[in-house]
Amino acid sequence: MLEQLKEWDRELFIYLNGLGIESYDNFWITVTTIQNWIPLYITFFILYFVAFHWKKALFTSLFILATALSTYAFTNVVKNFFLRLRPNNQPEIADVIRILQTPDNYSFFSGHSAVSTAAALFLILSLKDKYPWIWVVLIWPLLFMLSRIYVGVHYPGDVLVGAAVGIIFATTFFMLYQRSGKRFI
């Protein structure tokens, strides 16, 4: 069963990756580069300081950082346990896929997907009462996930499991945040 899932994942990856259009390559490389999102990360923290008094804003900022860093650490533990090669490092499909990046660490599951989903969902949960439009932040992890398939470094299953892990971490940390932050409300 696991081998069948891997085969479907590989076939879906080859199909989705093959939809890429060369004239959009620079866009997707820009999207997938973490450093290019620094203005968005700064905006997240500014939103907290606009929405809350400084103590609650600082407390909430520390919690979103803890959420992201914990998700990142867990991702790396899992990657080093499963040792699944990235699509760009698979010789049997290298000739039929578009490879725009060549990281050499492992694939399962996507750290980009997990951390961006965790941070975005935590941000949404913590600010939904202040900013009803905050749900638009979900565009960020969705673009991140698509970019990982487009540039040839993650299977669809990697990004879906990453998103699920991000949801679990965000929900868990948000519950801890609510319990421990009662004095700031």
Overall description:
It is a single chain. The protein has 185 residues and is mostly helical. Helix content is 66%, strand content 0%. The protein has one domain (37-184). The termini are far apart. This is Phosphatidic acid phosphatase.
Q: Give the DSSP E fraction (strand runs of 2 or more residues).
A: under 5%
Distance between the termini: 49 Å
Low-confidence stretches: none
C-alpha geometry: elongated
Tally of individual domains: 1
Short recap of the structure:
The protein contains 7 helices and no strands.
Key features?
185 residues; 7 helices; mainly alpha
Structural topology:
Layout: H1 2-18, H2 25-32, H3 38-51, H4 54-82, H5 111-127, H6 139-150, H7 156-180
Helix pairs in contact: 2-6, 3-4, 4-5, 4-7, 5-6, 5-7, 6-7
